[in-house]
Amino acid sequence: MAVVTLEGVTKVFGASGRRSAAVRALDAIGLTIDDGEFFSFVGPSGCGKSTALHLIAGLETADAGTIRFDGVRVNDLEPKDRDVSLVFQSYALYPHMSVRQNVGFPLKVRRVPRREIDTAVARVAASVGIESLLDRRPRALSGGQRQRVALARALVRRPRVFLMDEPLSNLDARLRLEMRTELKRIHQASPVTTVYVTHDQEEAMTMSDRIAVMHRGQLQQCGTPAEIYRTPANCFVASFMGSPPINFFKGGFLARLLLNDVEGVVFRGLAPDGLSVGLRPEDLSVRASSSPTAKGAATGAATTGPWIPGTLRFVEDTGRERWGDVDCGGQMIRARISGSVANGRTQVGQTVAVDIVSTENIQRFDASTERRLCDEPKVS
Amino acid sequence: MTLHEGGLWGLRVSALVLVVGFAIGPIAWQLITSFKTDAALVRLPPFWPEPWTTANYEAVVQEPSLLRVLMNTLIVAGCSTACSLVLGACAAFSLSVLRIRGAQWILAGVLAVSMFPPIATVSPLYLVVRFLGLRDSLLALILLDSTFALPLGIWVMANFFRNLPPEVYAAARVDGCSVSGAFVRVVLPLSAPGLFATAILVFIFAWNEFLLALTITVTTASRTVPVAIAMFPGLHEIPWGEIAAASIVMTTPIVVLVFFFQRRIIEGLTMGSVKG
Ligand SMILES: Nc1ncnc2c1ncn2[C@@H]1O[C@H](COP(=O)(O)OP(=O)(O)OP(=O)(O)O)[C@@H](O)[C@H]1O
Ligand SMILES: [Mg+2]
Q1: φ and ψ at residue A110, rounded to 5 degrees
Q2: What is the CATH number of the domain that holds B166?
Q3: Which protein residues touch ligand 1 with a CB less than 6 Å away?
């Protein structure tokens, strides 16, 4: 178990060759992962998540910055001396060994007695559900089975740090949920520092103590799932975390919202130009509306809160919830379709009203820097 | 349509016959010749040996140095193969998997060195061998053959190592192997087909090597197969029949060897390691 600290860690690929081809996979990343913490990296493809894990594992060398385990600089340590285990995104099983040998390999290399290896392999195989596959070769396994073997090979040991690169990406939905629970159980039973990479934000939200959101090699925000969701540091974090994604309003549309008497709630004294406002779909609700025009109807609406008029263009039914895309004068707004409307009375093309159900989570960003604005801005 | 297909089929068959004939022809000719009597050798019709005779083979087998020469060649080829495989694998590993600065320049240099015509190096090498007192010894042949086979071996194996999934080597490192541990436990077993291919190439090269062997060997103590075959004519007129029989006898081991290991080469070992 260890505290993992990254200080200004930078990795540039292809720097020795032509300048134009250089990729900044990691750009001055600084963060601390606490002892026993379940920490996730999330971000879109190519943002540097795998690179970060490989640097912590010692498979790549940092071009700048320091990596510390428990305060001790490990930049120059060999992977084997860092005592980490890594689930590779591409599994990286040993094709010439059986599943049993694959899983037992980290122990065998460390000269653990045969008997102990056998019990450890049996235990971890049962935990990821590959007992029946132990005598097969990797080439005789399906993708999901291979991924569980890779997971088992990492879990067979108790290292200082677990590194997992999208370890559940290839499992079916039900198995993925089971494995999530199993990983959480293992982590709770003996909390080893775990660095987890996923592009599934729901997985990150449900499993992690803290999350780091990455974009183009840069750390966007680091915090608890609630912090990331409620107080995103910038537009990117706000739009990446949350499904369906957040709605952004700016420019002319915001000015029209002003006319619609919602300024008191939305703007709190800020001018609409230079402002970008984010509203999550679950804080918006679609309601059938008879009056097509906005201005007059706004004050006379049945609900007390502010609302936006529009036309329902598209309905997405997830089974549990229904989401509607509403065209509000050129701006598309994604909003939840509430129960009564969902009973078949709302049709595509119909005139509707989008209620702002909750004003608690309205996000305000500077439109040019895309940074978050303070929650209680000074009234100008 | 049918005509077209028929034409295509005919083309394929004739191409096949041509290639097979080209490859097998000389060996078949040699085989046929080895069963002819000296008198039948100089007449072309009949094509087949008129009286079949095993006299040539008897002469070869009764040749007292035969076993000695075969053993010599086996030792030279075997040891050269082992040497260049061990050295070559280590070199290829560091040049392909470990990220050594200027690896491509070193590889280019290796290739450039191997382009020297051997004849240009024979006399200096002879002087070196004589200086070391290794003339007419198997050790000298082993050393020289290994050196000459090394560039080829390095290239073939470097190519093979480079095409292994790099994550597998990385996984071994994370799982606790040192660089050499990962090399021995993971990279080498995965490269078995490449190693066998290299081994066979080097073995064949060393088995057939003529120029150096001719220069360095003096007696049957270190004479190898190609030299021995070339030395056959020494006695009276050229005994083509016996040369043919000797060629057959001495080439057979290597043909058997290649057939034996061929399956291992074709086998794909890396399947199933990484995604897609
Ligand atoms: N060996 C390499 N050589 C050159 N560029 C690389 C190398 N490895 C990664 N990169 C680049 O670095 C960037 C980050 O890659 P990385 O694999 O860390 O992304 P990722 O966040 O894991 O993405 P994904 O979710 O698709 O796995 C990418 O732009 C990638 O092209
Ligand atoms: Mg990745």
Answers
A1: -90, 15
A2: 1.10.3720.10
A3: A 13-14, 23, 25, 43, 45-51, 89, 199
